[in-house]
Amino acid sequence: MRLLLDTNALLWALINGPRIDPVRDLLLADENEVFVSTVSWWEIAIKTNIEKLDANLSELRASAQESGFLELPLLGSHAEMLATLSRYHNDPFDHMLVAQAMAEPMRLITGDGVLAKYTPLVILI
């Protein structure tokens, strides 16, 4: 199975936080591929820059790579999918992650219940 971590799920996975417990086995299973979107790296960089998040992007990216997470680039096909989405809330990062999950397709792991309104591909933690 192909899994895409939203930004919060990524941070929880990297710090081994308890919120990731429901999907830990999925993340560790050899047959699954775990992806991190460049959208999440942008979100972390922006929120760090405006002091809404205290994080070291280089260290997080290195930790994700050491964990075996793959990077999912942002593609034109993802933007095309984004253009078809309803607006259930106003987080542009979440919208793009949903669009990527739907376009690929892959399961999106998130703690944000609103995202489940977009697609059954969401795994809510």
UniProtKB/TrEMBL annotation:
InterPro entries per record: PIN-like_dom_sf, PIN_dom, PIN_Sll0205, TA_system_RNase
Signal peptide region: none
SUPFAM superfamilies: PIN domain-like
Domain called PIN: residue spans: 1-117
Taxonomy, superkingdom: Bacteria
Pfam families for the chain: PIN
Protein's UniProt name: PilT protein domain protein
Organism of origin: Desulfomicrobium baculatum (strain DSM 4028 / VKM B-1378 / X)
